[in-house]
Write a structure and sequence with these properties.
This protein is mainly α and 589 residues long. The protein has helices at residues 3-24, 30-35, 42-53, 56-69, 75-98, 103-110, 114-146, 151-201, 206-209, 221-231, 244-259, 262-265, 274-292, 295-310, 327-335, 360-365, 380-387, 392-430, 436-458, 465-489, 495-517, 544-561, 568-578; strands at residues 338-340, 373-375. The protein contains 23 helices and two strands.
């Protein structure tokens, strides 16, 4: 069976599995659609949460970003895992005890304000739409290569699959679909990593292989990688080179953004009781660790294999002849995500840091006139098995895994958007007397519209999948996380403080991001380039969410001090949320 047929078999088989589960677990009530009737077992919920959280950014893009940058991009690992711990310890159990269906509903009731609820809806939609763009980008990358269709066609196919099982099944269908998707994606990530670790180091466990001896050179793998990249003018792989303040803020932004992501939070509304929320958080961390402990090894080994392909003899002078390039390069060139330009007309591929002043003389002496290979970072994990000449079935498995990661998170995000519109906007504000059947129909229509918008935006994403997702984390960090924290742990923050805090954090972060990403046009001004030299104090748009969160906390606190305190019943409600006794709900449906 050829590679294309295997890809179709694996991808088509998993899609049929997802659709079958959606039909079996279709939602018939709003309780099933929003929270799976709060009857999901903690282990099942932990696995579904892991799939929901480990998106295309984790599966497809994160290791690629680490591979091309090294230590400095380890902030993705630290921020996302640290943020999940914050979510599990500080938010999930208390939000489950409150007993609501959506994040805006909690904010609206806690801050006794319909305005606060609507502001929370706006924050949720903006962050979730930005996040889902990254997932659709990942879907397009995977489809365009493995099913040999255009990026646009791949997005449309992926959107159709998500539409079917998310609109039909709601949270109940999505939960069990995500369990299947987790099994697919974790196998797809770890199996090729084991093969490649054995090839390069002789060690089967990739996290241990990362720190083991490189079989071909006889020195530690990371030491050999440092030698190779520095010889080509790149920064050393294992050292810190970027702005420390920016790295700290970026890590913090990812952490608190993770803890404020609505599509992850609503997963903890699906378990029977508060204790189950804690257990499911623990199980999710176990399932997440399987991938995140493997990712640094995948990134380093992919970079090593890529450079060994371009310089097969280990010498800069003997780079790969373009006419002799391997099949994997030809396959990815078709997608447009791998490009070659023979700048010095020597018929060979040169890949080096042509912006390095220290390496310029060496490049000139070799007759090089610029780096000639452009590699989209989102392809590295998907191309890794092909680069390493792994069996065809492993390549097909990776294709199915990449799509599972993107589709599982996309479904969770779209469900959060759908719930906010139907439950908070329509049921909570515009039509309080709407029937359950009408609300369920509204939820499905709003999800269909959200899928259409996300697909359209996914055609022209603002960056790599992980970078686009990082923007979403910054928006969630600046708007939703502070409101949740203050809502749970402070009895003094009132409605006005919460509303103005969320708005200030969101607007500040959006303006900063739009300014440097080129989306904000002010007549009579020049566009500021998205470079460290132009950033305020060297803080990138990906890191500004942490500053926006600080502004949110500060504004909410100051406004609450100069305005009337919350009513006594609200203060009592906050107190009851944190009381460990009575592991039921403070306010329940």
């Amino acid at each position: 069976m050829d590679q294309y047929a295997l890809n179709l078999l694996f991808v088509g088989g998993t899609f049929l599995l997802y659709i079958g589960i959606a039909i079996w677990a279709r939602a018939g009530t709003t309780a099933e659609f929003y929270a799976a009737s709060q009857g999901v077992h903690p282990v099942v919920n932990g696995m579904a949460t892991a799939a929901d959280w480990m998106s295309a950014a984790s599966f497809i893009s994160m290791a690629g970003l680490i591979a091309f940058t090294g230590y400095d991009n380890s902030s993705f690992l630290m921020g996302w895992t640290g943020g999940y711990v914050l979510l599990a310890l500080l938010l999930a159990p208390y939000l489950r005890k409150f007993g609501k269906f959506t994040v805006p509903e909690f904010i609206g009731d806690r801050f006794y304000s319909g305005t606060a609820r609507m502001v929370a809806v706006a924050c949720l939609i903006i962050a979730s739409i930005t996040y889902v763009i990254g997932q659709m980008t990942g879907v397009g990358v995977a489809f365009s290569r493995f099913l040999e269709v255009s990026n646009t066609a791949g997005l449309l196919i992926g959107a159709a699959i998500v539409f079917f099982y998310a609109v039909l099944g709601g949270m109940k269908g999505v939960t069990y679909t995500q369990v299947a998707q987790y099994c697919v994606l974790i196998l797809a990530y770890t199996v090729p990593a084991i093969f490649i670790s054995l090839q390069l180091t002789g060690v089967a466990l990739p996290p241990i292989g990362l720190f083991s001896e490189h079989a071909a050179s006889g020195v530690p793998l990371l030491t050999r990688l440092d030698q190779v990249v520095t010889e080509l003018g790149f920064n050393s792989y294992t050292e810190h080179h970027s702005n420390t303040l920016n790295m700290v803020l970026f890590t913090l932004s990812l952490m608190i953004g993770t803890a404020g992501l609505p599509h992850v939070i609503i997963r903890f509304f699906t378990v029977p009781k508060v204790a189950d929320a804690r257990w499911s958080a623990g199980w999710a961390l176990v399932f997440i660790a399987l991938l995140y402990l493997t990712a640094p090894a995948v990134g380093a080994m992919a970079r090593m294999n890529l450079l060994d392909t371009i310089y097969p003899g280990g010498s800069q002078a003997e780079s790969l002849q373009y006419d002799e390039r391997p099949d994997w390069m030809k396959n990815w060139e078709v997608t447009g995500l791998l490009k070659f330009e023979d700048k010095n007309n020597d018929g060979r591929i040169q890949l080096y840091n042509d912006k390095s002043e220290s390496f310029a003389a060496t490049a000139e002496a070799a007759g090089w006139q610029g780096s000639e290979l452009t590699v989209n970072r989102d392809i590295l994990v998907l191309a890794n098995p092909e680069i390493a000449n792994l069996p065809s079935w492993v390549i097909a498995l990776v294709a199915a895994g990449g799509l599972a990661a993107a589709l599982s998170t996309a479904a969770g995000l779209l469900l959060a958007i759908s719930g906010a519109i139907s439950h908070d906007v329509v049921k909570g504000t515009l039509a309080p007397n709407i029937s359950e059947k009408g609300e369920l129909l509204t939820a499905r229509i709003s999800m269909a519209v959200a899928i259409a918008v996300a697909t359209w935006l996914g055609l022209n994403p603002p960056g790599f999948a992980a970078q686009t997702v990082a923007l979403a984390f910054g928006l969630a960090a600046a708007s939703i996380f502070p409101a949740l924290m203050m809502g749970i742990f402070s009895k003094t923050i009132n409605d006005k403080g919460a509303v103005l805090g969320m708005l200030s954090g969101l607007i500040f972060t959006l303006v900063y991001i739009f300014t440097y990403k080129g989306w904000l046009f002010i007549p009579g001004t020049n566009q500021l380039a998205d470079t460290p030299e132009n950033w305020v104090f060297g803080i990138s748009p990906l890191s500004i969410g942490a500053v926006g969160a600080m502004l949110n906390f500060a504004v909410a606190t100051m406004v609450s001090r100069v305005t009337a305190p919350p009513p006594r019943e609200i203060q009592d409600l906050v107190e009851s949320i944190r009381v460990p006794r009575g592991a039921g709900t403070a306010v329940d449906h």
